C-alpha cells in the first residue's frame, strides 16, 4: 500500500450500496471514539433532501441532549435538528423503565398498578434478574420505531440511527436470541424478541463501527467485526473518526518522521517569508513536524489493519477546534461527500 | 452567579493567556513539558513524583472515562515508583493487548506476576496483574464459606449471572482484589486501574449496592415465601410476581430465591469486607488521581469524579490531563498563517511545517479553553498535564517516557 494516500483500492471508500437500502443503522465504537457525535452526523446526513430520520440512544446517558445542547430528552420523539433540503432529525432517549412499563400497560392493562410496580422496584428487580431483558426491551423499542407506519401507511421514519452500546458489548446487545434464553418461553415480550431477531438479521439493518486510528480502538473494531460476522449480524462500514490529515507531501513524510527533515529548505523558506530562521524556531518547527509525521505514519499502519477486514471504510477528519454542534454539521457534510444520503 | 471568579464569556480567558504566552519568548521542547505546564497559569501543578515516592502512600487509584489512557497511566506510574526503588503491584482491568504483552500479562490468572525489567534502583520491583472478575468473586465465596456450600453457590445459575454480568460486579471485585493485595502487605505500593464506569457512583457504591440488592425487599420476599412482609403486600405481590414471571419466566425466580437462601449467612462477611476497603480508600495511605483528556466529554466525567470523590471525602490528589498538544515553536498564529499561504508554491515543505504549527496552535487554544473552564470549576485541584505521544505506548521505554512527563511538574 502506498504510504502517501493510506487508501487501499481493493475496498470501496464510499457508503456501500447496501447502506442505501438499510433503514436501521446501528452505530457502535469503543468508548472515547466519538460514537455519539458520529451517530448524530450520520443522522443529519441521512436526513438530507427532505427525509425524516430518528436518532435514538439506548444507554440512558443523555449524550444526544448534551451534544445538541438541549435539556435532557424525555421518553418521546422530539425534533432536534433540521438537515439540508428540509429534512429533519428527531431524537429519542430510550428509557428502560418506561419501556418495560409500556409493555406491562400494553399487554396487561395494568394502568395505576403499573406505577405501583415501579414503586416496588419491579423494573430494577426484573432487569437485574435477567440482564438480557434490558437488551430485549431496548432493541424492541427501536424495532417499533423502524416498523411504525403513519396514516398514509408509509414508514414514519426513512431511517433510524441508533447510538448503540460500545464495541465490547455490541454483539451481546444485538444477539437477542441468546438473551431470550433468560426470558419466559411464551408471552408478549417473547414475540417482541422474535420480531427483533428477524429485523436485526435482515437487509434493513446495518452495523457501523466508529474507530480512531489508534491501536486499542482498531483492535476492538476488528474483534467486533469478527464477532458480528460470526453472529450473522450485518456489518455496514467502518467509520474512521478524527483522522489526521497529512500536511506533508509523500516524499517529505518519511524523512520528517525519522527526524531527517531538510532543515536547509526550511530555513530558506522562512527567510523567503521574511521570518528570521533562528535555531530555536527551526528546532521547534522540526519537532512539531516530526511529531505530525510520526502520528500520520502510525495512523497509516492502523488504517492498513482496518483495510484487511474488507469492510467499506469512511473517514472523518479530526476537528481541530473540538467537537461541538457546529462540528457535527461539518462531519455530516464530510459523510455526504462520501456518499451518505445520496 | 455565586462563584468567586466572575465567569467571562467563552474563549476570552484563553485568548488573554495566549497573548501573554506568545510574548514571553519562553523556550519549549517536546521533551520538557515542564515549560508547557507553567504556560497554563491555571491551577497549581500536581506533583506526582511526591505522591509516587511517598513512603506513607500505599495505594494509588486512577479513575476516568474510557479511552483517556487510564491503564497506560497506571502502568507508567507503577513503573516510575518501581524505578524509584519501591515494590509495586499494578492491578489493571482491560489493558491493550500489546501493553499486556510487554508487561508479561499473557495469562489471565488473577495473581500478580513479576515484570522482567531492570529498574534504576536495585530495590525496585514491578508486579502486574489483570483482574478476572468472576474468578475473584468465586474465590471470595470460597474463602467465606465451607467447600460444600461454596460449590452449591457456584453452581447456581443466578449466581453465575451476578458474578459475570451484574452491573457493579467488576467495580466491586476490583476493590476486593485491592483489599486482598493490600492485606498481604507484600507491596510498598499498589496502583489500581478502575473500570471506565459511567460514574464514580457505581464504583464507590458497588459494595453497598451489591448487598442492598441482595438483602433488598424483593429478595427478602423470595427468600421467605409465605411469611412476614409478603402478607402485608398481599395482592400487590401476586400482581408483582405475575408481571415479573410473565417476562422472565418462573425458573429465574426460583434460582434467585435459592441463591438468596444459600447466600444469607455470608452477607455479614461481605459487608465487613466492603467496609474495610472503604476505610482503606479513605485513609491517608491512599491517593486518587482522576485521568482525562482535554475533550468536553472526558472533562465532564472528570468533574463528576472529582466532585464525587471530594463529597465522599476521599483523598483526591489531583487531575492528570492526558494527551495535550502544547506548541513547541514560538511563532504567533497570524504570522504563521500568512507565511504558510505565501510559501505554498515557493517552499511547500516550509508551508507544510508552518501549517502543522498553525494546527497545533488551534488545537492548543481549544485545549486551553477547556482547561480554563475546568480550573474555574475546581480552583483548588492540582493538575498535571501530559503531552501527547505521537504513537501508542505499548512498551517499557514508552511507559518511561510517559512517566517522565507525568512527574515533570514539581
Order of neighbouring strands in the sheet with most strands of chain A: 3-4-2-5-1-6-7-8
Low-confidence stretches of chain A: 1-10
Tell me what portion of residues of chain A adopts beta-strand conformation: 5-15%
Task: Output the strand order for the largest sheet of chain B.
Answer: 3-4-2-5-1-6-7-8
Overall 3D shape of chain A: elongated
Protein model, in words:
The complex is a heterodimer of chains A (342) and B (410). With 342 residues, chain A is α/β, with parallel strands linked by helices. Chain A has one domain (17-245, 310-337): Rossmann fold, CATH 3.40.50.300. In chain A, 49% of the residues lie in helices and 14% in strands. Chain A has helices at residues 17-21, 35-46, 63-67, 96-108, 112-119, 122-129, 131-147, 167-174, 176-179, 188-200, 215-230, 250-257, 263-272, 279-307, 325-337, and strands spanning 24-29, 52-57, 78-82, 88-93, 159-163, 205-211, 235-243, 313-317. In chain A, helix 6 (122-129) crosses helix 7 and helix 11 runs parallel beside helix 14. Chain A starts with 16 loop residues before the first helix and ends in a 5-residue tail after the last helix. Chain B has 410 residues and is of the alpha/beta class. Chain B has a single domain (30-406), classed as P-loop containing nucleotide triphosphate hydrolases (Rossmann fold, 3-Layer(aba) Sandwich), CATH 3.40.50.300. An eight-stranded mixed β-sheet of chain B has the order 3-4-2-5-1-6-7-8, with helices on both faces. In chain B, helix 16 links the parallel strand 6 and strand 7 (316-324). In chain B, helix 6 crosses helix 9 (169-184) and helix 10 (200-214) packs antiparallel against helix 15. The longest helix of chain B has 30 residues, at 348-377. The radius of gyration of chain B is 26 Å and the shape is globular. Mean pLDDT of chain B is 80; it is low at 1-40 and 225-233. Classes of the chains: A alpha/beta (342), B alpha/beta (410). The interface between A and B is large, with 72 and 75 residues.
Amino acid at each position: 500500500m502506498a504510504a502517501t494516500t493510506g487508501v487501499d483500492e481493493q475496498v470501496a471508500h464510499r457508503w456501500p450500496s447496501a447502506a442505501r437500502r438499510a433503514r436501521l443503522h446501528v452505530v457502535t465504537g469503543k468508548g472515547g471514539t466519538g460514537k455519539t457525535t458520529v451517530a448524530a452526523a450520520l443522522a443529519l446526513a441521512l436526513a438530507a433532501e427532505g427525509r425524516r430520520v430518528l436518532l435514538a440512544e439506548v444507554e440512558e446517558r443523555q449524550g444526544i441532549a448534551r451534544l445538541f445542547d438541549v435539556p435532557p430528552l424525555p421518553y418521546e420523539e422530539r425534533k432536534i435538528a433540521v438537515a439540508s433540503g428540509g429534512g429533519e432529525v428527531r431524537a429519542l432517549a430510550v428509557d428502560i423503565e418506561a419501556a418495560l412499563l409500556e409493555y406491562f400497560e400494553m399487554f396487561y392493562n395494568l394502568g395505576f398498578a403499573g406505577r405501583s410496580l415501579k414503586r416496588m422496584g419491579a423494573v430494577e428487580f426484573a432487569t437485574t434478574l435477567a440482564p438480557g431483558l434490558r437488551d430485549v426491551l431496548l432493541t424492541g423499542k427501536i424495532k417499533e420505531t423502524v416498523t411504525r407506519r403513519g396514516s398514509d401507511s408509509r414508514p414514519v421514519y426513512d431511517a433510524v440511527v441508533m447510538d448503540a452500546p460500545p464495541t465490547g458489548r455490541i454483539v451481546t446487545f444485538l444477539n437477542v436470541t441468546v438473551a431470550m434464553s433468560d426470558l419466559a418461553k411464551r408471552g408478549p415480550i417473547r414475540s417482541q424478541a422474535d420480531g427483533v431477531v428477524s429485523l436485526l438479521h435482515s437487509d434493513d439493518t446495518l452495523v457501523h463501527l466508529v474507530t480512531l486510528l489508534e491501536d486499542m480502538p482498531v483492535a476492538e473494531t476488528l474483534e467486533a467485526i469478527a464477532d458480528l460476522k460470526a453472529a450473522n449480524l450485518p456489518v455496514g462500514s467502518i467509520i474512521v473518526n478524527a483522522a489526521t490529515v497529512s500536511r506533508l507531501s509523500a516524499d517529505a513524510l518519511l524523512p520528517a518522521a525519522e527526524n531527517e527533515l531538510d532543515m536547509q529548505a526550511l530555513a530558506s523558506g522562512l527567510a523567503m517569508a521574511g521570518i528570521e530562521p533562528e535555531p530555536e524556531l527551526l528546532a521547534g518547527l522540526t519537532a512539531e513536524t516530526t511529531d505530525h509525521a510520526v502520528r500520520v505514519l502510525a495512523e497509516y499502519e492502523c488504517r492498513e489493519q482496518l483495510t484487511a477486514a474488507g469492510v467499506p471504510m469512511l473517514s472523518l477528519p479530526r476537528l481541530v477546534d473540538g467537537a461541538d454542534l457546529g462540528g457535527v454539521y461539518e462531519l455530516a457534510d464530510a459523510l455526504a461527500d462520501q456518499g451518505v444520503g445520496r | 452567579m455565586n462563584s468567586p471568579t466572575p465567569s467571562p464569556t467563552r474563549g476570552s480567558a484563553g485568548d488573554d493567556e495566549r497573548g501573554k504566552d506568545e510574548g514571553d519568548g519562553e523556550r519549549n521542547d517536546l521533551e520538557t513539558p515542564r515549560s508547557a505546564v507553567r504556560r497554563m497559569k491555571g491551577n497549581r501543578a500536581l506533583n506526582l513524583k511526591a505522591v509516587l515516592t511517598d513512603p506513607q502512600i500505599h495505594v494509588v487509584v486512577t479513575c476516568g472515562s474510557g479511552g483517556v489512557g487510564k491503564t497506560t497511566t497506571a502502568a507508567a506510574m507503577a513503573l516510575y515508583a518501581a524505578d524509584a526503588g519501591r515494590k509495586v503491584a499494578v492491578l489493571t482491568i482491560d489493558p491493550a493487548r500489546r501493553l499486556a504483552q510487554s508487561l508479561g500479562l499473557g495469562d489471565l490468572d488473577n495473581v500478580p506476576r513479576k515484570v522482567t525489567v531492570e529498574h534504576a534502583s536495585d530495590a525496585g520491583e514491578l508486579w502486574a496483574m489483570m483482574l478476572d472478575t468472576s474468578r475473584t468473586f468465586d474465590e471470595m465465596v470460597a474463602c467465606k464459606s465451607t467447600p460444600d456450600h461454596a460449590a452449591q453457590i457456584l453452581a447456581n445459575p443466578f449466581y453465575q449471572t451476578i458474578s459475570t454480568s451484574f452491573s457493579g460486579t467488576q467495580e466491586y471485585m476490583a476493590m476486593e482484589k485491592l483489599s486482598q493485595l493490600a492485606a498481604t502487605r507484600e507491596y510498598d505500593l499498589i496502583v489500581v486501574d478502575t473500570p471506565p464506569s459511567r460514574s464514580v457512583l457505581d464504583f464507590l457504591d458497588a459494595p453497598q449496592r451489591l448487598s442492598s440488592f441482595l438483602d433488598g425487599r424483593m429478595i427478602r420476599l423470595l427468600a421467605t415465601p409465605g411469611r412476614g412482609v409478603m402478607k402485608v403486600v398481599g395482592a400487590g405481590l401476586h400482581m408483582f410476581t405475575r408481571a415479573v414471571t410473565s417476562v422472565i419466566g418462573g425458573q429465574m425466580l426460583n434460582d434467585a430465591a435459592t441463591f438468596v437462601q444459600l447466600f444469607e449467612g455470608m452477607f455479614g462477611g461481605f459487608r465487613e469486607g466492603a467496609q474495610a476497603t472503604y476505610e482503606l480508600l479513605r485513609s491517608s495511605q491512599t491517593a486518587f488521581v482522576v485521568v482525562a483528556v482535554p475533550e468536553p466529554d472526558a472533562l465532564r466525567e472528570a468533574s463528576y469524579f472529582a466532585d464525587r470523590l471530594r463529597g465522599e471525602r476521599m483523598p483526591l490528589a489531583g487531575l492528570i490531563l492526558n494527551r495535550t498538544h502544547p506548541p513547541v515553536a514560538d511563532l504567533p498564529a497570524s504570522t504563521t498563517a500568512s507565511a504558510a499561504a505565501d510559501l505554498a508554491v515557493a517552499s511547500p515543505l516550509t508551508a507544510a511545517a508552518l501549517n502543522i504549527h498553525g494546527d497545533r496552535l488551534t488545537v492548543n487554544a481549544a485545549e486551553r479553553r477547556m482547561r480554563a473552564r475546568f480550573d474555574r470549576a475546581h480552583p483548588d485541584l492540582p493538575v498535571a498535564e501530559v503531552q501527547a505521544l505521537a504513537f501508542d505506548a505499548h512498551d517499557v521505554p514508552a511507559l518511561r517516557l510517559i512517566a517522565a512527563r507525568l512527574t515533570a511538574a514539581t
